[in-house]
Amino acid sequence: MTQNTDLFQQVSDRVNLWTIKKQRNMNVPAFIYGDERIVNELKADYKREWSATRQIINVASLPGIQKGMLAMSDVHPGYGFPIGGVAAFDIDEGVVSMAGVGYDINCGVRTMLTDLSKNDLEPKKKELMSELFNTVPAGLGKPGKIKLEINQVDELLIRGAPYVVEMGYGTEDDLEHTEENGFIEGANPANVSFKAKKRQYNQIGTLGSGNHYLEIQIVKKIFDGDAAKAFGLFQDQLIVTLHCGSRGLGHQIGTDYSRELVRASQKYNLPLPDKELGSAPIKSKEGESYISAVNCGINAALANRQVIAHLVRQAFQKVFNTNIRQLYDVGHNTCKFEVHNGKKVLVHRKGSTRAFGPEHPHVPIKYRSVGQPVLIGGTMGTSSFILTGTELGMRETFGSACHGAGRSMSRTKAKKRFWGKTVVEDLARKGIVVRAHSFAGVAEEAPGAYKDVEHVVGTMHDAGVVKKVVQVFPVGVVKG
Question: How far is residue 336's CA from residue 357's CA, in Å, rounded to a whole number?
Answer without folding.
Answer: 17
